[in-house]
Amino acid sequence: MRNKLTIFFTLFSFIIFSQNSNQFFELNLKKYDKQWYHFGFTIGVAKSDFKIDYTDNFMNNVSYDENDIIGIESKSTPGFNVGIICDLKIFNNLNFRFIPSLTFTQRDLLFNTLNGVKTTQIVENSNLDLPILFKLRSNRFQNIRPYLIFGGKFTYDMASKEQVDDFSIFKLKKIDYGMEFGFGLDIYLAYFKLCPEIKYFYGINNMLVNSYLHTNSLSNNIDALYTRSILFSLTFE
Questions:
Q1: pLDDT digit string (tens) for 201-237?
Q2: Alpha-carbon Rg of the chain, whole angstroms?
Q3: Which DSSP string do the residues of 36-91 spell out, in sequence order?
Q4: What is the C-alpha to C-alpha distance for residues 204 and 217, in angstroms, rounded to an integer?
């Protein structure tokens, strides 16, 4: 995680300081904040994970069989995000934002057995994200303007196997929803506004499909799976 943050802010610094240094003293885009609406696009790196709730039987089980599962871990790999920004000014310091986007991620569930054998269940997601957010901005200081962002997000997984008629496979629901919040910095450049941003998504929908019906021995140990993800992005408006 530390390496990803270093890369993110190094890229951000390069873009900023490659601009003419006088831009930090001359007011750029003077009429920008007078507009009631504007559009843009965003690109970013996403890191998604699971919060795992175990079944009572798994938590209370004392294993004697070497093939029994004794531990479950969630591991994520970096993903990619791209979206379109629709921004509407409500007040001088408050904006409404709708950012339809596509996010491609992979999460791995690692099942550890008593004899040390690990089984990996790969979960690939191709998500259509529909966040509805509010952007609370500070007053502008020269060419920068910090802000907080918060709201809700609805997600539809286009790669979900929820409807597959086979209870032996590992299934996750198509639809997820939850709260999203974060912070960023508006930077007014000569011809556009650049915004480095960090957002955290807290899923509240149990993504596991009818775990009590599964004949899959792996999912029988899990009571619920909740999405936790973080997104590092650059927006251009």
A1: 999 999 888 655 554 556 677 888 899 999 999 999 9
A2: 22
A3: SEEEEEEEEEEEEEEEEEE-HHHHH----STTSEEEEEEEEEEEEEEEEEEEEEEE
A4: 25
For 110-138, letters b (16+ CB in 10 Å) and e give ebebeeeeeeeeebebebebbbebebebe
CB 156 within 8 A of CB 125: no
Phi-psi region of 23 (alpha: psi -120 to 50; beta: other; left: phi over 0): alpha
Write down the pLDDT at residue 161.
Answer: 72
Give me the pLDDT at residue 206, please: 92
Residue 211 structure tokens = 């775990």
CB 205 within 8 A of CB 177: yes
Mean residue pLDDT across the chain: 82
Q: Tell me which residue of 208, 182, 200, 186 sits closest to 55, measured CA to CA.
A: 208
Domains and CATH numbers, the chain: 2-236 (2.40.128)
Report residue 195 as tokens: 């915004």
In order of 114, 139, 155, 186, the CA distances from 143 in angstroms are 58, 11, 34, 8
C-beta neighbour count of 98 within 10 angstroms: 15
Digit-coded pLDDT (tens) for 73-100: 888 888 999 999 999 999 999 999 999 9
For the whole model, what pTM was predicted? 0.81
State both tokens at 156. Answer: 């539809």
Which residue type occupies 137?
A: R
> Any idea what the Cα angle at residue 167 is, between residues 162 and 173, rounded to 5°?
20
